Amino acid sequence: MAESRLLCAVEAELLLHPERWTPVFGDGCPGAVQDEHHARWLQERPHSHAHPEILVIVAGKGPHAHGEAIYPCHPGRAFFFAPFDAHDAEPAPHLPDARQLWFALHGSRATARMIEIARGRWRRDWALVLPASQDAVSQWRRALETDASELSRLRLMAVAQLLVATLLEAGDGAAREDDGGDFQQAVVTAICDHIEETAGRGDDLASLARLAGYSKYHFARLFKRETGVTVLQYIDTCRLTRTRELLAAGRTYAQTADALGFSSPQSFSRWYQQRK
Asked: What pTM value is reported for the model?
C-alpha cells in the first residue's frame, strides 16, 4: 500500500480502492434524504463558485448538499461539483466528527486540502498544490463537454482517481502550506491561472479566498504582495483581455456581457467604457 505522511493508513487504503466510493454527480443522484435542520442551515448560507471541486469523505459521517439535495455521508462518499453547483459553504457546526478531502481544479493546476471537523468546529489540517495536474483539469473539461451521462461520470471518476494518485505519489514533495513562501507563491499562481481561464466570471474576493484556503483579508494581502496588484485589478485586466478578444471575433455587447457574467449589457457597457 502507498504510504503518505499526509494520510493515515485507513484513509490511504480507502482512496486506493475507488470501487468502495459512493459518488454523487448531481442533485438527481439516488440516495438523497430529508434533513430539515441541515436544509435550514443551507438556506441561510447559499453558496456556489466558478471552479469545480471534488469532495471525498475519508472519515466520519454527516449530511452534505449537492444543489438542493442532501446526502448522508460516510467514508468513501464522493461529491463532484461542477462550476456554479450549489453545495455547503463550509462544514456545518452541527456535523459529527469527520475528515473531508477536497480537490479544487483551477487554471492548469489542482489543489488538495484536508478539513478536519471535531466537536462542532473545523480546521484545515493540511493544504498543498498538486504538481503536474494539467491532465486532471483537461479531463474534467472533457467530461463537462460529454453529452452521454454515463461516459461523463466515467471520466469524472477517472479525474478523481488521477488526483488521488497524484496526491499519493507526489503529495509529500508538493508545495505545502507549512513550506511558507513557496506554497503561498504556488497558490497565488494557481489562482491567477484560474482567473485568466474564467476571465473573472463568477469570481470575487470571497470565492477566490476560499479557493486559496485563506480568509478574505489575508488572501487580499497575499495576492497583492505576490502580484503587485489587487485581486479586482487582476480580474479587470483578464476581463478586458477577454472582452477585446470576443469583440474582435464579432461578438455583440450582449453576447460578451453574457460570456463574462455581467448582469446586463448595460452594466457591461458602463464597465467597458471606463476601461477602454
From this structure: 0.78
